[in-house]
Amino acid sequence: MGQKVNPYGFRLGVIYPWRSAWYAGKHDYETALHEDIAIRDYIRLHLSRAGISEIRIERKGDQIQVYIRTARPGIVIGRKGSEVERVRKDLERMTAKRVDVKVEDMNQSATESRPETDAQLLSQGVAEQLQGRVSFRRAMRRAVQTATRAGALGVRVQCSGRLGGIEMSRREWYREGRVPLHTLRAKIDYGFAEAKTTFGRIGVKVWVYQGDEIPSEEKETERARARALAGVPQVGPTGASTGALITDEKQMAELTAPDEPAPALEETPEDVPEVSTSEGSDSPETPSDGTANDASEGAKSTSPEESKTEAPPRGAAPQDASEADQGGSEA
Predict the structure, then answer these.
(1) What is the mean pLDDT of each run of 10 residues along the chain (331 residues)?
(2) In which order are the strands placed within the sheet that holds 200-212?
(3) Are the C-beta atoms of residues 159 and 204 closer than 8 Å to each other?
(4) How many CB atoms lie within 10 A of CB 42?
(5) How far is CA 211 from CA 30, 144, 154, 167, 179, in A?
(6) What per-residue confidence (pLDDT) applies to 278?
(7) Coil, helix or strand for 1?
(8) Rounded to a whole number, what is the distance in angstroms from the first to the last CA of the chain?
(9) By CB count within 10 A, which of 100, 153, 196, 329 is most buried?
(10) Class in CATH terms, 115-212
(11) Cβ contact 197:169 at 8 Å
(12) Domain boundaries in the chain?
């Protein structure tokens, strides 16, 4: 029914990388795969008290690099590096290849997950408490509270077997927060451990939800969707859609602010242009050679005295009677 898939394998290649990074041909693949399984089994068996969270293996030619991620690096390294040197020699004898062992400390601030929110370490802690005859309910509640206080968004702890020493085996679990197992982008850390008690083995499984891992392409889509829901227009200076994402807060505020009307300019009497009208200009069209402009400029440049002595326009009546009589005799 799809309920027993490993959360790490379910998300492999989507948000989680491979823990074994190497390439082998058709004939060497089987040998390299069994070597990786043997290396992991040996390290977990001989360093069971070291709080090992993850073992990564890389191969480059005939050299094998083993990265041990632990919460107790002192136990793995040993006094003056004696323990890690012993592990390296044993692995070289098992694989007949050069082996380099590197230890990574989980307690450093640069690490992504802390020991309190690591599913593998939480499952090992519950298993150790069950071996020490601690009540399984108390051990499970303690693990859930520890992970929640450390910042985990959701935790689920499950124990299966002869809980409490009864004859009938059963399964019980506690959960706090949300653990979306069917969401591929959800970072679900999974851990499994076994407690060897006097009345049989008890399996412990832990799921820790540490947030979502969103790819970069989906991040751009989410930003565009959020901006569309907010009603922010995506237009450029020409009015066409730019299709670009707005990440600047000032630019977003400018786009979302309502348009303010431009203030009206008050005209002063000095700025109002003077319009001169002439009685003889009945046609609306003006000549294109600029003669009207020259005439108007010349009229403005004349003084008041000159304007009084100017000749009357054509068709005007004579002012004096003598001029009228003279004109009649000539006619």
Answers:
(1) 82 91 94 96 94 95 94 92 95 95 84 86 96 95 95 96 94 95 93 95 96 75 82 53 53 61 56 50 48 48 49 53 49 41
(2) 170-177, 154-161, 200-212, 186-197
(3) yes
(4) 14
(5) 36, 17, 9, 39, 10
(6) 47
(7) coil
(8) 128
(9) 153
(10) alpha beta
(11) no
(12) 7-105, 115-212
Beta-bridge mates of residue 190: 207
Sorted by sequence, the CB contacts under 8 Å of residue 215 that are 6+ apart come out as: 185
Q: Which CATH class is domain 7-105?
A: alpha beta
119 Cβ contact list (under 8 Å, min separation 6): 189, 190, 191, 206, 207, 208
Q: Which residues contact 113 (CB under 8 A, 6 or more apart)?
A: 106, 189, 210
DSSP-H helix ranges across the chain:
7-10, 29-46, 73-77, 82-95, 119-131, 136-149, 216-230, 249-256, 291-301, 304-308, 321-330
Q: What whole-number distance in Å separates Cα of residue 217 and Cα of residue 321?
A: 101
Give the integer Cα–Cα distance in Å for 32 and 27.
10
Residues 6+ apart with CB under 8 A from 65: 57, 58, 59, 99, 100, 102
- CA dihedral over 220, 221, 222, 224, signed as positive or negative: positive
Class of residue 68 by CB neighbours under 10 A (exposed 0-12, middle 13-18, buried 19+): buried
Residue 179 main-chain phi, psi, to 5 deg: -130, 85
Neighbours of 113 (CB within 10 A): 20
Token pair, residue 6, equals: 């490993």
Q: Which amino acid is present at 182?
A: H
Query: Phi and psi dihedrals of 324, rounded to 5?
Result: -70, -40
